[in-house]
Write a structure and sequence with these properties.
single chain; alpha/beta; nine-stranded mixed beta sheet; eight-stranded mixed beta sheet; 12 helices; 19 strands; 34% helix; 25% strand; binds flavin-adenine dinucleotide
């Protein structure tokens, strides 16, 4: 974008400025523009190249479990002792980590889990419908509704899968328990035997970057403006209102502002006078060419927490959760663990041809629920951050929810559950 265009953007008063161009910011901006608002979306890098870029692409309301599920404590201690386990917490004396762990433990109870599941399923179901419509308009999104198969080698894994099935069934998500023969009949590309599994027939997937590009293109078609390589630096306030924002490309102003900066949001706590306990939960994806025995449906190998996504020309193996905050390094051992775990249940070639190893930082809150709502003190500032491992599946729904909140329509939401000032 040249200087004349940037000057024109600076001289325009927008209805809404959205900060952060991941799935959350882009869907928020797109929905507001669809409702007739004049929207500016700013992104410090390139649209969709943060955590939303290489995720598994799952749009799966059955995965609406918040991170601190009851019973996770024992399991996570076991995982932590295993250097290749799916969960790792980088030791640190940081008060942010201490607070996060304290709040995480406090939220590990049935009452909170039930409330969080209801809220997250709601966002996921709204998103699924919205993605289906987006996929119909933009075939490049590769929206496919083939269901999702959870498989397990051991009985504890089966018990966990059945527990998830029953919890989401109460919210209208159908699932069917399967034995090993039924799993192999449904997905012959798997290596059995299994202790059991669950098939959720209505779950979907899409190509994550293409989803964001489709939303960005819809945003532009509704007169929205996107500024890339424009880093937000701070809010300029007068009294209890934000007047403008300062960025690396100058100042911009709007009637209202939404912060959607994913795992970078914690650093804005002091600036906002608000505790935003978001830690980066690093995960990896290995992208390889399509297998000779390519699975047909997405598969979750539950006890290893490995997400296997078959695409038309490739295979994506994703997993691990390393609570590390802003550390983007790649731990080779954990990448190998994803490959080894996948090999247990898939017919991988002896040496897989890796096209890309990607890592992303999931914005993780200690109660496993995003912060969606108005800032408690600044009357024209809103937050939509902290979507942890579910940012794609809840993303579009959170954009619709944010637009409703800005329009004052809050009665359909459990606003306390998502309240930005709850910590
Ligand atoms: C391995 C892996 C697999 C996953 N699989 C799935 C899945 O299958 N389904 C699912 O639902 N979720 C999945 N997730 C989680 C999902 O990817 C995230 O929840 C989601 O991407 C978060 O979106 P976001 O928009 O909040 O963050 P991001 O995509 O990270 O976007 C935030 C944006 O804000 C920008 N930004 C930050 N600071 C500033 C600033 N100062 N100024 C301007 N811009 C700024 C960043 O550059 C970034 O582009 C997975 C995650 C990982 C790591």
């Amino acid at each position: 974008m040249n200087m004349t265009t940037i000057n024109a953007v600076q001289n325009t008063k927008y209805d809404l400025i959205v900060i952060g161009g991941g799935i959350i910011g882009t869907s928020t901006a797109c929905e507001a523009a669809s409702r007739g608002q004049k929207v500016l979306l700013i992104e410090k890098g390139h649209i969709g190249k943060g955590c939303s870029y290489g995720n598994a692409g799952w749009m799966t309301p059955c995965f609406a479990m918040p991170l601190p599920m009851p019973g996770l404590l024992l399991k996570s201690m076991k995982w932590m002792l295993d250097p290749e386990g799916p969960l790792y917490i980088k030791p640190s004396l940081s008060p942010d980590l201490a607070y996060w762990l304290f709040a995480f433990m406090r939220n590990m109870n049935e009452k909170q889990a039930a409330r969080a599941i209801a809220g997250l399923v709601g966002l996921s179901k709204t998103s699924l419908t919205a993605y289906k419509n987006l996929g119909a308009k933009h075939p490049e999104v590769h929206f496919e509704q083939k269901g999702l198969l959870m498989v397990n080698r051991n009985k504890a894994g089966v018990a966990a899968a059945l527990d998830e099935m029953h919890r989401v069934a109460d919210h209208g998500i159908p699932g069917k328990a399967l034995n090993s023969d039924e799993i192999l009949a449904l997905e012959p590309a798997l290596k059995g035997p299994f202790a059991g599994g669950v098939y959720f027939p209505e779950e979907a997937m899409g190509e994550p970057l293409k989803v964001i590009e489709a939303l960005a293109s819809d945003l532009k078609s509704k007169n929205g403006v996107i500024l890339e390589e424009c880093e937000f630096l701070g809010f300029n306030q007068s009294g209890a209102k934000v007047n403008s924002i300062s960025t690396t490309l100058g100042q911009f102003s709007a009637e209202k502002y939404v912060l959607a900066t994913g795992s970078w949001s914690k650093d804005m706590s002091r600036m906002l006078g608000l505790r935003i306990p978001i830690l980066g939960g690093k995960g990896y994806a290995i992208i390889s060419p399509k297998l000779e025995q390519q699975p047909k449906i997405p598969i979750m190998y539950l006890e290893k927490k490995i997400a296997i996504t078959p695409r038309s020309n490739s295979l994506r193996l994703a997993g691990t959760l390393e609570l590390v905050d802003q550390d983007f390094s790649i731990t080779e051992r954990r990448v190998k663990a994803i490959e080894r775990g996948s090999r247990e249940i898939l017919h991988l070639p002896e040496k897989i041809q890796v096209q890309e190893v990607w890592r992303g930082l999931r914005p993780c809150t200690p109660d496993g629920v995003p912060l969606i709502g108005a800032h408690p003190k600044l009357s024209n500032l809103y937050l939509n951050v902290g979507h942890q491992m579910l940012g794609l599946q809840t993303g579009y729904g959170s954009g619709l929810m944010m637009a409703d909140i800005i329009d004052g329509k809050t009665k359909d939401y459990d606003m306390g559950l998502f309240a930005p000032d709850r910590f």
